[in-house]
Q: What sequence folds into this?
């Protein structure tokens, strides 16, 4: 747990999309669809949804604080950080006999290859500015306006492996292997407009647009295993932001929504202009760097054929389709949502999530509204999770995701993926 808390701290200090490709806000974790009008967080999903979030006569709806949440994801290697720390202890040994040195090199190389291929630890967090999202009905514009400001973060640690050898002259073990960390923080400020184009007995057609200003802070680094002095995550914590680079961009999302008495269909297209954000460069112009910064630079340069020394993250355009069917007088809903194409998150992992869920509003404050579901990444890691959401007193939302694939950390079996969101909201 200490390892996961550290990465969460790295991500937070390194922030935000209305529906970030690395962590959905609020109840969107369970129901990433415009089908649910129970939560103001739907204003962060389909841009056409806000017009449906206000009941007749309502003028205002806001988050309090809206949503805060986080997640982690682990590679297939059990006890990744502990294995790296044990490897560091082996490398630091001195006066090793030739026989033991050759055996340690053989064992360590098997471990290095496995760690480099399958080992990583990733974590992230998100939060909305208090009182946001804010949804307001404007009679003058004939539309519903939505305002939001939020921050999302992500960090990942992995290993770049290089063969370990025994040096008979120094009687020590040597390797060019290094720990590799990437972290991103993206702030988002958005303004949305949605309205009904027409309403009939068969249903209503709504459209919406959301304009977004994004400010991203991207950083990555490599640290040689030989340069590690102490716990691997403690070393990274002290150095992760040395090569941080900041950039900003403007983009937009579009949405359309057909709402019938018993069913609903929606389509969202996010990040129309596909904005680009640069990482701070590593492994270049190493002669001008001194000390540990210079050492880290040369380490990165040695892995220039495996990692990008100059890297740009493209926030790719993504389309998402959703559908819902209502029952029990509208208190119950069966919903589904699927991204129609894959995109890469800031650390370069492919994401294409699909979700199905069923929810029921008890229509009483004594019992919480309940939603349960299943989510799966159709690309990249192809991880899946069961989801559960509860709304207490009609205002407090708690949503959880529990991964269905497992690994081991500190001798205990844990899901490879888990996430949570917590927030509250008000109506006026």
A:
């Amino acid at each position: 747990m200490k390892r996961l808390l550290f990465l969460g701290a790295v991500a937070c200090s390194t922030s935000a999309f209305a529906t970030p490709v690395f962590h959905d806000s609020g109840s969107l974790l369970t129901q990433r669809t415009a089908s649910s009008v129970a939560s103001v967080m739907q204003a962060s999903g389909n841009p056409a949804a806000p017009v449906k979030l206000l009941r007749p006569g309502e003028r205002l709806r806001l988050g309090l604080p809206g949503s805060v949440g986080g997640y982690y994801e682990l590679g297939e290697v059990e006890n990744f950080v502990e294995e790296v720390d044990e490897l560091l202890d082996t490398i630091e040994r001195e006066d090793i006999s030739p026989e033991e040195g050759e055996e340690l090199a053989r064992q360590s190389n098997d471990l290095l290859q496995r760690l480099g291929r399958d080992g990583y630890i990733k974590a992230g967090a998100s939060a909305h500015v208090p009182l946001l999202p804010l949804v307001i009905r404007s009679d003058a514009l004939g539309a519903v306006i939505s305002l939001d400001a939020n921050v999302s973060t992500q960090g990942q640690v992995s290993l770049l492996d290089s063969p370990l050898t025994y040096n008979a002259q120094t009687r020590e073990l040597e390797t060019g292997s290094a720990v590799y960390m990437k972290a991103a923080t993206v702030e988002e400020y958005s303004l949305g407009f949605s309205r009904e184009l027409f309403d009939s007995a068969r249903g209503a057609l709504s459209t919406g647009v959301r304009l977004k200003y994004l400010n991203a802070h991207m950083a990555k680094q490599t640290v040689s295993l030989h340069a590690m002095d102490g716990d691997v995550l403690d070393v990274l914590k002290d150095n992760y932001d040395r090569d941080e680079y900041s950039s900003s961009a403007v983009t937009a999302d579009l949405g359309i929504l057909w709402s019938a008495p018993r069913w609903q269909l929606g389509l969202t297209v996010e990040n129309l202009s596909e904005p680009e954000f640069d990482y701070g460069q590593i492994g270049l112009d190493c002669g001008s760097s001194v000390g540990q910064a210079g050492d880290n630079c040369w380490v990165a340069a040695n892995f220039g054929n495996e990692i990008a020394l100059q890297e740009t993250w493209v926030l790719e355009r993504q389309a998402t389709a959703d559908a819902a069917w209502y029952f029990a007088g509208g208190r119950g809903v069966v919903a589904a949502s699927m991204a129609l194409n894959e995109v890469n998150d800031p650390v370069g992992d492919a994401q294409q999530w699909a979700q199905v869920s069923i929810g029921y509003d008890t229509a009483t404050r004594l019992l919480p509204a309940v939603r349960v579901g299943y989510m799966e990444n159709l690309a990249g890691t192809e991880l899946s999770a069961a989801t559960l959401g509860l709304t207490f007193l009609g205002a407090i939302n708690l949503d959880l995701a529990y991964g269905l694939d497992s690994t081991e950390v500190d001798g205990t079996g844990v899901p490879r993926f888990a996430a949570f969101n917590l927030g509250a909201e008000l109506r006026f």
User: Anything to note?
Assistant: The chain has one domain: 2-427. The helical segments are 2-13, 50-53, 80-91, 98-118, 232-239, 291-302. The longest helix spans residues 98-118.
